[in-house]
Fold this protein.
Amino acid sequence: MNNDKLRNTVKKLRHHKYSGVDEIVGIEPKNRYGKISKKFVKENVSLSVDTNSQKEDEEIISSIKTLESLHAYMSEYKKCELHKSANNMVFSDGNPNSKIMLIGEAPGHDEDIQGKPFVGRSGKLLDKMLNAIELSRDKVYIANIIPWRPPNNRRPTDNEINMCLPMIKKHIEIINPSAILLLGSTATYALIKNSEGITKIRGKWVDIEINGKKYPMLPTFHPAFLLRQPAQKKFSWEDLKNLKSRV
């Protein structure tokens, strides 16, 4: 049996499974894999299951229309291993009717404890940044790419980002902001897939399309980075003024 026939066999077995068939009995045993390696079988069956699971997730997420439904879905989502070590699923903060949305990377220690984004030291700096352009948490909406804290505040893996990406895109779609401020390199890479670093792309508006609609996004430095590199605050100040003039 060649590889194409094996893939067709896997598809047929999956069809039987979702049709309610849980057992197939033949009169005589057959070697349906021939000389194909066990490694090939394992990889293709695993890929088939993962692809099917991803499609099911996408169908569910596409049917979500409200923040309440999205919150419920994310609260019960167990496929991302990060939820096992996190205290809380950090959903959002701020005004859901705002036309300005801020998206960060992932919760830190304080955010994980309190269940809100940007409440630690970087959150206090973010509040000051917003106040500088006459905004506040009550006037913007804040979320993260990843809703669970990664262990030891490490950077989320590409797999974790891709797993959570449909959720943040649905989040954007429901809020329907006029402008989005991307805080840091991880949030920028997750949504824009830029090959250049945050230093080169910050301050430049980039449109991304979600479900047929374009959303303008402005990458800037993460407040945590500014705490380590205060000399870079002048560039963030320019980005904030850029955001204000846009909306």
Notes: Residues 40-49 have pLDDT under 50 and may be disordered. The chain is about 50% helix and 10% strand.
